[in-house]
């Protein structure tokens, strides 16, 4: 799963890079034929000039085509690897926790099961739901965080390579953006909790 995240994360900044290259290719200017007065055949000079430009555009188009194909294959393969790896890990964790809970119930005294909160239905519900809660917290959220980390690192490397001032600016802004999202999340969760409390009191 981590290997798939390592491949999937940097594909997002690479997608942006290839998209920019494609837009640059589509808007490539083709200027008029240069002055060929020194040449004997002006038409042949212009033909060579336009053929050279067309060959460059064709070679870049072929490169971008294969780049998009490889990127799509990497995204598909990495996503399958991510969901399989983290899904398998979370399923095994849930099964191990459920087995530990069941073994814990087996060593309890008979009087433990006479309590209303420890009835057979309640115990079965715990075995079913509690392990599922842990699975929901360790599966998709964990894989999203790892993909995000590798994506940010890939974007920083790409920006530092092509334009180091923008890369440094992004590096400085990341902690500020993280703090802003944390404050926003805390405010949003606080508002939701207040609404729940109002509904209960109402």
Please give the structural blueprint.
Layout: H1 2-26, H2 42-106, H3 120-138, H4 140-162, H5 164-201
Helix pairs in contact: 1-2, 1-4, 2-3, 4-5
- The 3D shape can be described as elongated
Distance between the terminal alpha carbons, to the nearest Å? 46 Å
Number of helices: 5
Instruction: Output mean pLDDT.
Output: 76
Biggest sheet details: none
Classify the beta-strand content into a percent band: under 5%
Order of helices and strands: HHHHH
Count of strand segments: 0
**What's the helical proportion of residues?**
over 70%
Return Rg in Å: 29 Å
Given as residue ranges, the uncertain stretches (5+ residues, pLDDT < 50) are none
Structural class: mainly alpha
Short précis:
The chain is an all-alpha fold and about 200 residues long.
């Amino acid at each position: 799963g981590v290997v798939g995240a390592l491949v999937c994360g940097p594909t997002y900044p690479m997608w942006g890079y290839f998209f920019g290259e494609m837009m640059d290719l589509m808007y490539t200017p083709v200027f008029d034929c240069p002055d060929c007065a020194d040449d004997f055949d002006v038409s042949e000079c212009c033909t060579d000039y336009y053929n050279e430009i067309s060959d460059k555009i064709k070679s870049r188009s072929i490169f971008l085509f294969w780049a998009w194909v490889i990127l799509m294959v990497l995204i598909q393969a990495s996503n399958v690897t991510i969901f399989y790896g983290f899904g398998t890990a979370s399923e095994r964790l849930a099964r191990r926790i459920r087995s530990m809970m069941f073994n814990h119930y087996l060593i309890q005294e008979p009087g433990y099961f006479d309590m209303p909160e420890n009835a057979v239905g309640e115990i079965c519900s715990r075995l079913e739901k509690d392990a599922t809660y842990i699975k929901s917290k360790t599966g998709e959220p964990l894989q999203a965080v790892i993909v995000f980390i590798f994506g940010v690192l890939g974007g920083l490397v790409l920006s530092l390579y092509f334009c180091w001032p923008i890369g440094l600016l992004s590096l400085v802004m990341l902690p500020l953006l993280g703090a802003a999202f944390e404050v926003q999340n805390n405010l949003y969760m606080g508002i939701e909790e207040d609404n729940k409390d109002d509904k209960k009191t109402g």
